[in-house]
Amino acid sequence: MPKRILITGAAGFLGSHLCDRFIAEGFLVVGMDNLITGDLKNIEHLFKNERFEFHHHDVSKFVFVPGQLDYILHFASPASPIDYLKIPIQTLKVSSLGTHNLLGLAKVKKARILVASTSEVYGDPTVHPQTEDYWGNVNPIGPRGVYDEAKRFMEAMTMAYHTYHGVETRIIRIFNTYGPRMRLNDGRVLPAFIGQALRGEDLTIFGDGSQTRSFCYVDDLVEGIFRLLMSDYVNPVNIGNPQEITIKDFAEEIIKLTGTSQKVVYRDLPQDDPKQRQPDITIARKILGWEPKVDRAEGLKRTYAYFKSLSKDELYKKDHREFEKK
Ligand code: UDP
After folding, report:
1. How far is the CA of 67 from the centre of ligand 1 (A)?
2. 203 alpha carbon – ligand 1 mean position (Å)
3. What topology does CATH give the domain 4-181+216-243+276-294?
4. Among candidate residues 92, 99, 131, 101, the one with its CA nearest the CA of residue 278
5. Is 84 one of the annotated active-site residues of the chain?
6. Residue 320: pLDDT above 80?
């Protein structure tokens, strides 16, 4: 009997790659998405596959899935600082009410559930690199609070269902991830820079560009998720690429990659923008035997090829940032 898995956020960047992976592994995949930030284009190639079904549903409302379920992956959530400003209440609800609904579903179906937490639980970290036992430095009422606190609640609720109800739970803390199917217009730094280069605009660095991030290629992340789901480790696990870079140097890499003749321009740093971020992946290495395989040069090449293949319409589609300024 093939195993059946529910993947929420299925039409999103990560969700769609997870659907592909679990289909390839021989699973029956139930994809669920309310499509406020997801895009059916990311999964349309699966619609002909008889092992795939799609439910258009908001998981913040009661979730009903008929039949057997062996696994649940909760990957539904807006995931860019621009989204948090534009849709703060949905961001809060999907990781709080949505997580509660899915934990309830996991309990009745006796399914194992893995929830997508984030390096944002560490906030603007005072410990570097970030280890899983660091409790974080989060501003609950800042612009990122709607995401960070909902994800922290998600972790608390997940652990409570594990200890109180005995539900099999897994928690991944995802660091910055990139790859094909990222939304070009979501305001995140990589699609922002590549989009700007493709449109012949200057690259916008927020602040002085000395803040750091560590970028993980999506295939590596998906492998980490797969291994964590199949493991018996209940505490949170960081998955990310420890190769750290300043945003200024990252802009230079994109300029070289795209061959653009544009320059960089400096804009105000958004409130509560973390100054540094790098995962400590000792636990992932030890427990899952996992580490990233795709370096940034290779990952960026693959990602650029994807963005270059998009239509002009998509390239010039209205950017959320214009709403924010009004
Ligand atoms: N950033 C930037 N220019 C942009 C978009 C983002 O300099 O056009 C910076 C942003 O201020 C942050 C970093 O790039 O320091 C990563 O931003 P992103 O929104 O991708 O994710 P975050 O890691 O902050 O959640």
Report:
1. 42
2. 12
3. Rossmann fold (3.40.50)
4. 131
5. no
6. no
pLDDT digits (tens, 9 = 90+) for 161-200: 999 999 999 999 999 999 999 999 899 999 999 999 999 9
For tokens 């493709």, name the residue: 198
Q: Map tokens 């621009």 to a residue.
A: 82
Q: How far apart, in whole angstroms, are the C-alpha atoms of residue 166 and residue 187?
A: 39
CB of 188 sitting under 6 A from ligand 1: yes
Q: Determine if ligand 1 sits within 6 Å of the CB of residue 205.
A: yes
Report CA-CA distances (Å) from 311 to 75, 203, 223.
Answer: 27, 20, 30
Measuring CA to CA, how many Å separate 210 from each of 152, 194, 205, 213, 275? 27, 19, 10, 10, 8
One-letter identity of residue 151 = K
| pTM (global) more than 0.85 | yes
Name the residue with tokens 């214009």. 322
- C-alpha closest to that of 30 among 13, 42, 18: 18
Sign of CA dihedral 283, 285, 288, 291: positive
